[in-house]
Queue: 4 jobs
Job 1
Amino acid sequence: MPVKKTITLLLACLLLASACPAVRAEGVAVEIRDRAGLEAIAQDPAGHYVLTADIDLGDGDWTPIPFSGTLDGAGHTILNLHVTETRGSRTTYDGNDKPYTSSFAGLFSELVDAQVTDLNLLGALIEIENSDNAFAGMLAGYVENSSISNCTVSGRVHMATYAIDAGIGSIAGYGCGSFLNCSSEAELVHEDHTSEHRCEEFVGGILGCGIAHIEGCTSAIEAYVSCNGFAHNGGLTGMYHVCGFSFDDRVVSNNFVSGTIRFYENNYIRKAYCEPYYGEHLSATYRAEGNSHAFKRAETWDYSQILRPETCANPDYETTVTEADCDSFGFATHSCRGCGYSYTDSYTLKQHESGAWETVTPATTEREGLAQRHCLLCGALTDERVLERLVLCQSLTLSQQQVRLHPGDTASISYELLPAEASDRSLLWTSGDETVATVSADGLITAIDSGEALIIARSADGAVSAACTVKVSKTFGQWLGGIFR
């Protein structure tokens, strides 16, 4: 190829490269330590993220966001998630493969081809009242070909619906995916307020409705279901069904379910599905082994009252606050004086008593340093900060090189220390003869007796210094007074 054409091609490549936006390096995770960081996921939902701190979301309602990336919770906890609205629109199916258009609620509205690991949700509250078809879970409303592993959720999912197709799950509402070594402790309340048609209702301790690989999970469920249509309630899933998905990893093994599902099905065409693992099972191929339970089915035929955790018509709550400490989150417990029902909310972050900053790696002119603080009670790392590279002083100029004083007089010398961005701009002052003159830490010279002393100013970093000669002589009166003393 001619040289001219080669150069032209190289220039074109450079121009194209400069026009393209920067691409995230593969495998590099964005660190998240606060609410703003979580909200920013919406700007790059296919990105890679890792939590570096526990996060309190108690300062306002959360808007569910779709996600298709990876999130490593790194064992951290998100506190006080509160969701009151659904987002998104997808097709969901009932057990007869009838399609519906539904929306979704949770920390994520949708998880599609996503991975979430080692994340904890504590004190989550999902409260949905809707006239449209909807599914909700603490972590996600909709899941598709996603993996959720080593995650825990604890809180409440309440749905009051006027729709036909609706469901809730402790972790996820609807879909397909893997739930591995997860645990849930949830209060699930599903209120069907329809009367003119029969609803399709789904409640599950892990997944409301769908097909999934559920293994090594624990589900502690307390559910209250009022259904005027067809009830599908299960300790793991309300209905185990393909639901329009192509998902072959159908394993339900080594799980433990505890708790009670209280429900009614106000429908003369009775189904009343409610079982320890899955309410209704419609998948022909799956592997189930090693599951166990301490589960209770509690069906009632009194349709006059919506089933709720509070049995008092007008609950009277007493609130007790448990303060956070080094090892535990704080929380408020609300207990009804009448029926004894209680719930917890208003979780607070763990509280450490931080000690003084300690320099772990001193900063130099070549590199940054690192300082840390640790809890005085438990020794945990509470804070760390980067120490900027050192910028040394380069010049020090005193306004005077010689000062004449009488005993008892004082004088201050102005100075110029450069550069202005020097890391340490403090000076150290010394006197060569304190019987003649002294100098204070801020540079105030005090004459003591006749003689000559060299006052030296040094930058605290030791890079520069300057000197001033102080000559002290007595006045005639001081000299005369000395003779006759």
Job 2
Amino acid sequence: MAKDFRKDIDYMMSYKMGLDDTFQFRCKACGKCCKNREDVLLTPYDLFRIARYLGRTPAEIVDKYCDTYAGPDSHLPVVRIKPVPPDNSCPFLRNKKCIIHQDKPMVCAVYPLARITQQGEPAPFYVLQPGKSCGGTDRTVTVRQWLGHLCSEEGEQTGMMWGELIALFVRALHFLWPQIPDEQKESLCSSLFVFFYLNYDVKESFVPQLKANAMGAVILWQKELSFSEVPAWFPIEELPKGERQQHLLLLKAYGLYKRDWCAARGLRPEQIDEETGVDGNCYACLEEFQDSEYRDASYMEALLGVEDFSLWKQYFQRK
């Protein structure tokens, strides 16, 4: 399994494409990719766009068209489109056409590509899925042309945010899951389902709502999951002054420090073993960071944004 995962990572890093790179593909509109599928998973942004397009709430879309379950590995809530028998076709497929084509799920929009988010990268990248025989290869197209409006700044931003949010919780749950009581596991999954997927007003902008929901989920489960970092986009400046804001500022700074440490060495975060690092050299743990770099004003000013550095001076600058 580890070797297969490494092969996947190596393939992705060797063939990654940006929005202006080209590939060869022509869709024949055969509807093949819309049938015999039980693996079309929705991100919160997918669900939000579908709900907005159909004039429904996210909860109504889930109730009518989706299944939900806890991911066997991530332990996080998963939303998938519920296929329709007898050929397990997508419920949004009508007369060989997608009735939500304008706002279809990203996994459908990018096909035959896959979109990959990587911690520390400013935007997602794309790879051509290996072994896909559907369609023709007589058309050259850029990734940007293929995705159309879905490669907007909002679409790219939400892809990165969602990837980082999922990674945050997966890392925290990886070792803690066996120790969490069953009742608390159910509470965790149900609350994250609401925060991640349902708590949105489709008449309002998505990104601020995702930020607020992510913050709410972390605050609710911080004590139980003991996060060691939070993403750089967390709007901690919006929290009331106090210990909670101070602690989340520390976690944001630590996450940026780890990203900076890896980038300086040309490494990806997934290449680092937190115990042994690389050649015995690893980044500082949270406690060591707090006692060293985090006290250095010049380092933190370069690391943090203007608003976060202003907060840092209030909480941590030595008198």
Job 3
Amino acid sequence: MEIGNIIREYRGRKGMTQEELAQALSVTSQAVSRWEIGASYPDIAMVPGIAKVLEVSADELLGCGNFGKREPLSEQDKPMRSYSALVKSVQGIGDSILNQSQIDSIFDYASSAGRMSKLVLVVDDSDFMRMMLTDILGSAGHRVVQHGSGEECLEKLQADNGIRADVCVLDINMPGLNGLEVLEKIKKDYSYLKVIMLSALCTEEIVKKALELGADGFVAKPFQASSLLERI
């Protein structure tokens, strides 16, 4: 099913008009109309924002999920998906979302001019996000290995004796082991491996928890490609 049809379906489920969706996305209602009739497609960079407004995963929005086969999962059926559940899992409660500059001040980040090709582990349960990160990193000359879960990443590191990868780009909100749990295990067993957290869950409590567990950087979603590449 084309993305326009999926947008129209989920917009209808939320009871939104084309004008209301357009306003939420800062686009024209004509743009939304053209998407829905298949005359044009939203830019790939807009997909995370559209998914957030329509409360659907980016994978389903792109036709990679189970659209049309089931109703959206209730919150109680989404393990580790809600913001509050993840905050509680790291004993931090707060509702202040930090911007990238505020995150950088916590990590004491300073840009470096040095660049070289690296082997990067991309760990994210979203097919769309792994695909986008692979394109961004690959275009900058880096080699990428994708993992769809924290468990898969740790199994691969153990199988390779942890000696191959240079950097791990790690999502936080994943089913099974969340990113903070994976970070803790990586820093315990593979302490030389640099880890950059990449997440929309960027409250002060979570960012500071990531720093405490040994993260080397934290990039807030949605993100600019240059922001991630600088940290790599």
Job 4
Amino acid sequence: MLISTKGRYALRLVIDVALNSAEGPVSIREISERQDMPLKYLEQLTRSLVRAGLLNSTRGQHGGYSLARPAEQITAGQVLQAAEGDLAPIYCLEDGAEECPRAEVCTTLGFWKGLDQVINDYVGKYTVADLCASPVCK
């Protein structure tokens, strides 16, 4: 499984909002400058993150983005799923996928299910607050 630029940028964006929203919503332009990410790309990501209920959007002169709930209640997995979609390592394990006709005889299905569980447990274990506590963020 390869996390794309969307997933990596989405995590950085949410962490930036968490670290910089103490005085109100964070401007997407400020995030773009601090994180050295294209503004247009961030505009697309913020829409996905707002739709997923992870960010709030405030319009106007002092508008921008803020976390929709405390950083301790947003996991890295939720952010990645909002940006990337399903994190399943193979198609047949994705939400809503048709059952594989080989599922009854597949010798590797147990392996893939185990990997899927490890991935989901790992990304679900870390919150935005945990990632903000990194020494690099201080």
